[in-house]
Design goal:
With 314 residues, the protein is an alpha/beta fold. It contains six helices and 14 strands. It has one domain.
Length: 314
């Protein structure tokens, strides 16, 4: 029997079977690689590649991706965002990662002429879920000094090629948001696990992974002209990673007590680890706490009888 095709409804046009929707013409100058150009213009591919690098190096280190594109909200600062990645080492270590892709970028970090890559002391964020004979007592937390390897150079000044004097510094801008992210992520984790015995101490470190080439610039500061502010020569060394340490917080960290201006300034110091992406696996394989003569900050807080945090904010 021949196939009978119903007549179209009045006022409508019959559409042939297996009709293909006509594609609009490509805009002038657009090529078939337009999708690739759009992808490359974003930073998401770099972020995903960094995640793959973490996974690929799993035979050399204990770090694994615990979360990615993780939303966070900081109630005290009213800032919010997404953590590119959160890495966990299977113990108390956490790395909160911000991926920063730049085009042909070079980051220059100023250090003194005699500076060496020997820095271990690092202000990091810690949480202590205190228990006594199996019973939950409360949570102490804050930013405190912890000895961490690998040793690196440490700088408080970063100059990004192409930035002007009136531009907001890149690391200060990224770092302030990343520190809020660290505190918010830590609070969320503790809220879900405090008092359960699942955690004892947790230590969070902010980490910036970039494709920018990192340079340490050794400057003989007495040779800087007081007339022009210029220096004639400086020794530059390319490094795989380093510490960027600065007073990036506007809040006074625990313990809140009578203190000198020097002590207040010290309490606001924070450290960002800055790592070139090509050296990420090497950094992760070496990163660990290295106990020195100093007590851990939660031990200092315990001995001092520091109050527990009711809000779980520093």
């Amino acid at each position: 029997m021949p196939l009978v095709v119903p007549k179209p409804w009045r006022g409508r046009t019959a559409v042939p079977l297996m009709a293909t929707k006509k594609q609009p013409p490509a805009p002038a100058g657009e090529t078939r690689d337009h999708a690739v150009s759009v992808l490359n213009a974003s930073g998401f591919l770099f972020q995903l590649r960094v995640e793959e690098e973490v996974k690929a190096g799993s035979t050399r280190h204990a770090w694994a991706v615990a979360a990615r594109e993780h939303p966070w909200y900081h109630e005290k600062t009213e800032h919010s965002g997404f953590a590119d990645m959160i890495l966990a080492d299977g113990g108390r270590g956490r790395l909160v990662v911000e991926c920063k892709r730049s085009r042909q970028a070079h980051w220059y970090f100023i250090v003194r002429a005699d500076a060496q890559a020997i820095i271990r002391r690092t202000p990091l964020y810690w949480v202590h879920d205190v228990r006594d004979q199996g019973l939950a007592k409360g949570v102490r937390l804050g930013w405190g000094s912890i000895q961490v390897i690998p040793t690196t150079f440490e700088s408080a000044f970063c100059i990004v090629r192409g930035s002007g004097e009136n531009d907001q510094p890149v690391l200060e801008r990224i770092g302030s948001s990343l520190l809020n992210c660290v505190e918010a992520v830590a609070r969320e984790e503790v809220l879900h696990q405090r008092g359960t015995g699942a955690i004892d101490q947790l230590v969070y470190a902010p980490l910036i992974v970039t494709n920018a080439t990192l340079h340490v610039v050794h400057c003989d500061l007495p040779s800087v002209s007081l007339t022009t502010g210029d220096i004639e020569t400086a020794k530059t060394t390319e490094v795989p990673y380093l510490r960027f340490r600065k007073a990036l917080s506007h809040r006074f960290a625990w313990p809140s007590r009578v203190a000198t201006l020097r002590e207040i300034a010290e309490s606001r110091q924070r450290t960002l680890f800055v790592v070139n992406a090509a050296s990420l696996t090497d950094f992760l394989s070496k990163y660990q706490e290295a106990r020195g003569a100093e007590e851990f900050p939660w031990e200092v807080a315990s001995r001092a009888g520091a109050p527990f945090s009711d809000t779980l904010w520093p």
